[in-house]
Design goal:
Blueprint lengths: L6 H4 L1 H4 L9 H16 L3 H4 L11 E2 L12 E2 L25 E5 L2 E4 L2 E4 L6 E2 L1 H15 L5 H5 L6 H5 L8 H15 L5 E2 L3 H10 L3 E5 L4 H11 L5 E3 L7 H7 L4 E4 L2 H9 L3 E5 L6 H7 L3 E3 L5 H10 L1
Parallel strand pairs: 5-8, 5-10, 8-9, 10-11, 11-12
Antiparallel strand pairs: 1-2, 3-4, 6-7
Amino acid sequence: MGPHGSTAQRFPLVARFRPACLPLPKRVCALVDLADTAMAETDQGVASSVQWGCGPGRIRTCDTRPSGAGVVSLSAGQRPWVPGAPFAPHGGRPGGRAGTVGTMGGMPAHTLTVGFDLDMTLIDSRPGIKAAYETLAAETGVHIDTDLVVSRLGPPLQDEMRNWFPADAVEEACDRYRALYPDTAITPTTALPGAREAVEAVQALGGRAMVVTAKYEPNAKLHLAHLGIGADVLIGGLWAEGKAEALLEHGAQVYVGDHTGDVRGARAADALSVGVTTGPCDEEELRAAGADVILPDLTAFPAWLRTFAAA
């Protein structure tokens, strides 16, 4: 305890969260001022121990996000991230909630965590996937319309294989495709505009960037390494609502994707859904699925993220 009493005595709204105060936006703004004061007193751990909460059916707070970007909101009883407070550094605390690191000021500090889809969000894998399917078709003698395949990327591999192979041959075809993939699909694939910069923008704020994809994880890892996309976490084999498992585990506040399945995954994880129109789904489809924010591509993401983090 310092010479002026405990943190709870000096800054009760910062040190002790009071759900009853949340419905009034002005209370949140007052909390910002108190957090700034706490930070000046070197009590940054308390100031950084609160975080964003977003999702449907929540209480509105001060909305300074870009026009049309949706509403930053809080569910009753959930701590907001305080604008101006630093995010915690990379890493995790054993035994703690995913996305938290250590304790400062007697309370856990939370890291900004942003999830990204892979295919057609971070990378243009159409040339590589087309080549892999063409090789599989040549080996098996099965006709596969590869142009059609790459026009609808997103769902699990098994779903696409069922369009070309009988049910009892789907798993074998998937296994062979995955084996062919490293030699056929990695080199032709390119990073989409702004992909590396989007990941780096998260990390520049002291946050963690994670990739959550339906793709076979070892092959997804090859893509990231080949293209120099330095995600902190990679989790493969998850699709649509299934992605919520990883997003919740790692405490992701935002999930970015090009497919309505990505929007569903974000909503299932109660994360802010950022849609990009670089994949098979257009703005209307993404918005109808419930995307909170729509961007034309990832080149717009760093500026949006800075606005989001500063709001």
